[in-house]
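Box 4.2: Ligand-aware structure prediction
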Amino acid sequence: MNGINPNNNDNKNDNNNFFNDNPILAFVIFSLIIVLVFKTFFSDGGLMSDSSGGKTPVTQTKSVKYSDIKELIKKDELQSVKITSSTVEAMSKVGGVKYVAQNVPAFDEKLIPLLEEKKIPYEGVVGESLFSQIISSLLPILVFFGIWMLLVKKMSKGMGGGILGVGKAGKLINSEKPEVKFDDVQGVEEAKDEVKEIVDFLKYPERYIALGAKIPKGLLLVGPPGTGKTLLAKAVAGEASVPFFSVSGSSFVEMFVGVGASRVRDLFEQAKKDAPAIIFIDEIDAIGKSRASGASMGGNDEREQTLNQLLAEMDGFGTDTPVIVLAATNRPEILDAALLRAGRFDRQVLVDKPDFEGRLAILKVHSKDVKLALNVDLEIVAKQTAGLAGADLANIINESALLAGRNNKTQIEQSDLLEAIERSFVGLEKKNRKINDIEKKIVSYHESGHALLAELTKGARKVTKVSIIPRGLGALGYTLHLPDEEDRFLMQKSELLAEIDVLLAGRAAEDVFLGEISTGASNDLQRTTDILKSMIAVYGMSDVAGLMVLERRQHSFLGNGASSSEYSEKMAEAMDDFIKATLATHYESVKATLRLYSDAIEEMVQVLLEVEVIEGSKVRSIIEKHEIANNLESRLASKRA
Ligand code: ADP
Ligand code: ZN
């Protein structure tokens, strides 16, 4: 229930599920299930057991001694008898009881005359029993084998080769000849410049070899997910029109021991045969994790073998072989140092999120194939998408086309694009999720509080829209602040404090106007605490620690890099006290503002309850009206000035 942080789209590689990580375990579990199924179907009491009786249905099965059955025959109580190599089964004349004697010692030659004497029909089923025994022990094995083959096939499909193809000289490794050109990749100009020279190596290798130049072997593309690393690698192959061999580091981790290494061998063998060629290894961090850090997790032999093989291959071919290995990662800091050594991935190229111009160019590339209305202004879209990567932008264009289609339009209009942007920032609109009236009221006050403080606090971002339509997971309502300037790399202290006020205002509004507080503010409160903590421990913005940095953040593209903190218990206590006190003062001042503007809040709540959404401009006019009516010194105007 708060403003939206635009930098939250970095989780694309975290969807490995349990069975993908543990194919062998999956196999074992499968086998166990199959064994159980066969045990039930092919043993006594299961489907095949009811052949002893004639017409009478079995209502009860009794395990008895062989002598008991003989006794029953003598008493003439049996309807039929079935003799197998080791058991005797008998059906009673009345009651549908089936007697089963296991472990009949040896064949009793007196049994048959006895049965004939009593005229009880009997049958021997030695052969059939043996047959079914064989079947029931062989079939599971056959089924295991079948399932195993299926598993193997499925796994190898994803990798373009086969586990069973080990040693068959990589015929199973696929390559493609991409059509992608450099013009399709935008917003990453420096990275493009760096890889351009590779194209020339690949196109005219003889030229460089004749000069004795060493062709670079490996190049590491580093950057957040969705910024176009794969696309750029493809464009290199496309521009040079050479084959493109692509594997994903994470696919190696799923393989059986030894398979990854031989896959790497095959991959290089095939690429060398087709040289000049590009090998692209996506998510190289999956195999290239620093071995030091991997060991603490119990190690992973498979990964290590694969990594060693990769290193060996890269060392193995000479600089006169025009095969270039491009690898991509968003976590360069965890890579094994051995990978980055000279002659391996000794060049790193940053593929970063695009700036305004870059976003505009990417939007243009992706809108080539869709129908935009003539008056659509992509600059507006580029302005409102600061912090998004190329993949998000491509997605926004596509989403807007889907929206326009759903509304029976023949062209995409600006409003469709805006809606698509909002969706990508806050997740899908969930019109079908009904919130009850009490919740609606709470959320209305909460969001109105956020919106009011955002408009009145210097340094806070303007409100674009307030809504109580639940969107995405968890958020019952939201106050949207799209970044109004394009890119921000620095935050001033006053802006951080302003954000704290805006975040606190949701809870404060519930408190002031409803006299009760809800659980809806927990995310807001978490963020205020985080901001204050960083101000003290990371940015040196408090009197508690002065300029001393208490927490080191390792830079990471994912923004969740490890942080190490080192400070005394006394300092920790001082920090806690400071955070608590600051929050309390700010909370009080926010409540005072809310009380001063209570009419404005009530009016916003009224509108929200009625139509569920207020545009930013409407919020501002409500506040302005209130300031004039109450003769207030206009904070709205002074903020805008
Ligand atoms: P990465 O490999 O960095 O995770 P991808 O190259 O797979 O990102 O990007 C996914 C898709 O997003 C691309 O196929 C392309 O459609 C779009 N895209 C991403 N970055 C760019 C860019 N810089 N220029 C144009 N399109 C891009
Ligand atoms: Zn909130």
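In the box above, the bound molecule is zinc ion. The chain has 24 helices and 16 strands.
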